[in-house]
Amino acid sequence: MNRRGETTEETSGAPVVSSSQTDAAEQRKRTTVIYVVYLIAALDITWMFLQFSVTPYLAKKLGFDTLWFGYLQTTVGVIMLFGGPMFGRFGDLFGARAALSLACSATVVFFLLLAIADHPAMLFIHKLPTVFMHVLPACQMVVTDLTEPEKRADALSKLGLCFGIGMIAGSTLGGHLNTRYGETFTACFGAAGSTFSLLLVLKFIPKNTKVKAPTTTSTDSESKKKSIFNVGEITRLMKFPGVARTFIVKIVAGLPSGIFQVMFSIIALEFFKLTPEENGYLMAYFGIAQMVIQGGVIGRLTPRFSDHSLLLLSIAVSSLVGLAQAYMQNVFQFCLTVMPMMFSLSVFNVITDSMLTKGVPSSDTGTMLGLCASVQSLLRTVGPTAGGFLYVNYGISSIGTIQCVVNMAVFVYLLQRGREKTTEQTK
Description:
mainly alpha
């Protein structure tokens, strides 16, 4: 008893822990997990760009021409297109650690199959694990679960900073390893690195990162809802207010710029006449630009402006970038467009992902991020065909012109929708 007759925990010898101390400890734990997730993302992008220094040369040795290499890339796009939503659903049902573990394990198998690839068919077989290789979306799941909605865009943008770091490190490391030790050693190095990423997941990522753990029931209806392959549960997310519209905007506005990204390797080779060394420098420039924008710009914009305003800004800048690319004649002029291009792409991807995850319940954010990842896979699937047709028949200017027109139309549509919404609120 104390002087007022109130019982304290000191009589039993138990320390008194205030709720503020508990909250602070929990916050520190969350911050540590997020930092580890950033490291895992940077490592995964490093291994991905490491692979980019192996596959083209190995494919050439195995007799692939440009057409068959395009088929190989399209195969990856199709596999990941269908795998993205299912992987996101898996993360919602079994937790982020299980999803990250599956993705890293698939990456290990991917590199091991690449290391033993000695036949053209093996190059296609080694792409099969990409159905589960969604490390970056899994990292987005963890960050989304552990951050407040108002801080989510800033936290997700830091993953883009990790992408830039991995792009530079992976391209440089892969080039040196492939040149000195060959494709097999480089692929084995990627497998070892992916194994290290898997160990980080098992050591630091908690089993469940969502606020509320999923409850288990024994009814048939609930078990059907918990099926990974339940298409109805995946498409159900589009029925939430504003989600379908934002998702369509993500596809329509992102398609033209996606076509340019897919076609860039051909543009650099045939239009800019870049050597492999010069192309490497340009890729490093991309990585530095993305690091600056994602690490130092987006985080300053998200607290000051609404998601809708930033979405409009990114689409408007993308339209201007398309106009500039329609008239560019050399690599120097293209380099002038890189900063605004990376700004529009970074802001657009971060804001749309943030808006879509805010528009669905916290229990479905993984599935939503899987759908967002499938958009990128769709661009990789459609992009080579559409981009090749435009480039061969109408030249590089056609790609920029379409990007300008499409993004301007989406900008006008969103601006009009915003005005209508404001008018309804004032009535």
